[in-house]
Amino acid sequence: MPPAPAQPTAPVALICGDEDFAVKQRARQLHDKWCAEVGGMDHDLIDAAVGNSGDALKALGKLREALQTLPFFGGGKVVWFKDCSFLGDDRTSGSSAVTEALAELAAELKAFRWDGVRLLVSAGKVDKRKTFYKTLEKLGSVETFAALSLDDRNWADQAEDLAYKKLKALKKEISSEALAQLVASVGPHTGQLHSEVEKLAAYVGPRVDIELADVTAIVTRNKQARAFALADALGDRNLPVLLKTLDEELWEIRLGVDKKSEIGLLYGLISKVRVMIFLQEMLKAGWLKADGDYNRFKAQLERVPADALPEDRRINPLTMNPYVLFRALPQAKRYTSAELIRAMDLLLQCNLKLVTSQLDESLVLQQTLTQIVRREEAAK
């Protein structure tokens, strides 16, 4: 995460970016600080989260009025144009009427006398090519908060750092494995991460240390983490849990939840088997050691020769969350190399059946997973 931003000294500030939680948090912080500095009671908050060009024009009209209205009770004035949704490149932002109104407002802001008045604009993604953005940048400060992304190999490290600092502020300590499990459960969603950290702190009460069992007990897993449950059951070679989890996933598909599909479930299982094959090969090469220590495991991963693994990020295990790999390492040891190769073959056959036959998808998946997990079947 970026370092704490310097406090703006100019009377205008734009807080923006696709990391919604960080934008809202920083904007609130700056708003409260400015209100305390300028004094007075006539501060204005204008909701600029709109859905069409007509409402955008109304919001801009309110902003003009707020800037031009002097405080009744003396002191200064802070105007917060909050959650502006039409500074990007969407349909509302592209409206000719909105574009013209923003350009006119930009010209007015350049000539405005800022004696005792401060303007705070908070927004999501913004189009830096537009006149209004350039004007705000010239008149004051711009702070941008980018969301964590699964495409960034270091997203988990950034999320762990964010959670660790938050826990420190709450006077709590957390083990490295518990911290990794927290991030793996939440994913790259900083708003949910902050909520889960606060929930953990409340859960342990006066106890300082947070352990893996605490995270497992109360942290709410996001959709992506729940999807890992099926693959984890396959890795654990736990047939009852595997079939139960499969049934739950299939029910969600039938109900139309999150646009899931049987093929999507299958691809997740193929990815899991592929990872276990890679981990077995890395164990054989001596790059990894299954000693159960997460910090040592991460250090070992960093020493794996990059040219020994696929360049394609979609199948390169080193692009995954290290904790997911750490969890998969003991699972890989539950299968022999021959069993994993056979599992991959069975999953590919399953894929062919799902896309070319009229067989019941649920039955095809159940039979395939049962064949993979049962040792007596694998031994034949």
Structural domain count: 3
In terms of DSSP E residues, the strand content is: 5-15%
Percent helix, as a range, is 55-70%
Q: Please compute the radius of gyration using only Cα atoms.
A: 27 Å
Q: Predict the CATH topology of the largest domain.
A: Zinc Finger, Delta Prime, domain 3
Largest sheet: 5 strands, parallel
List the SSEs and their pairings.
Elements: E1 12-16, H1 20-38, E2 44-47, H2 53-68, E3 77-84, H3 91-94, H4 96-111, E4 117-123, H5 131-139, E5 141-144, H6 155-169, E6 173-174, H7 176-186, H8 190-204, E7 209-210, H9 212-218, H10 223-236, H11 239-254, H12 262-284, H13 294-302, H14 322-332, H15 337-356, H16 361-373, H17 375-378
Parallel strand pairs: 1-4, 1-5, 2-3, 3-4, 6-7
Features:
380 residues, two-stranded parallel sheet, Helicase, Ruva Protein, domain 3, 8% strand, elongated, Rossmann fold, Zinc Finger, Delta Prime, domain 3, 7 strands, 5-stranded parallel beta sheet, 3 domains, alpha/beta
Would you give an account of this structure?
This protein has 380 residues and is α/β, with parallel strands linked by helices. The protein folds into three domains: 12-144, P-loop containing nucleotide triphosphate hydrolases (Rossmann fold); 155-218, Helicase, Ruva Protein, domain 3 (Orthogonal Bundle), CATH 1.10.8; 223-378, Zinc Finger, Delta Prime, domain 3 (Up-down Bundle). The protein is 58% helix and 8% strand. The protein has 17 helices and seven strands. The protein has helices at 20-38, 53-68, 91-94, 96-111, 131-139, 155-169, 176-186, 190-204, 212-218, 223-236, 239-254, 262-284, 294-302, 322-332, 337-356, 361-373, 375-378; strands at 12-16, 44-47, 77-84, 117-123, 141-144, 173-174, 209-210. The strands form two sheets. A five-stranded parallel sheet has the order 2-3-4-1-5, sandwiched between helices. Strands 6-7 form a two-stranded parallel ribbon. Strand 2 (44-47), helix 2 (53-68) and strand 3 (77-84) form a beta-alpha-beta unit. Helix 10 packs across helix 12 and helix 15 packs antiparallel against helix 16 (361-373). The protein starts with 11 loop residues before the first strand and ends with a helix.
